[in-house]
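How it folds
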Amino acid sequence: MQIWAGLGNPGPKYALHRHNVGFMACDVIAEMHGFEPVQKKFQGWVQEGRIGSEKVLLLKPGTFMNESGRAIGEAMRFYKLEPQDVTVFYDELDLEPFKIKVKRGGGAAGHNGIRSTIRHIGEDFRRIRIGIGHPGHKDRVTGHVLGNYAKAEQDDLVQMLGAIGAEAEWLAKGDDARFMSDIALRLQA
């Protein structure tokens, strides 16, 4: 079993924020792969399903971004999993908008949701970094991260999220390179 956690803030007023792109990714994966209905569990919302032959628990922590690790840690301990069995989808300022990078381990790079996750489960989990771009000046970062995607970005957002969902089987199989490569090819078309 694997846990795939999407980071974001709960509630409708945050739904389209760039900071919630991890939640959006989980929603698309659940829809595209026919996951079970949402249940309230582990201080958040979960959906169970299969991607290929792998059982996956999608988790959207309800603890707000800065405490995301509490929910992820609780789910990981309940299922007696290791950090290597956890994948976290989140927004990344240091990547161009709609670019995807996968990495394992490392620090938080200023991301409070990742910092919380590290605090609760350690560093050795897989991260799906979803680019939101940097607004240019550090004074504009908070407004950018906590701002909605612009109308002009909606098509690119939908295309990127669809690519994540369509290529999720490579993640489930542990083929991170193929996941990134196939997403890049889809987004070029």
Remarks:
- The mean pLDDT is 95.
- The first strand starts at residue 2 and ends at 6.
- The first helix runs from residue 21 to 32.
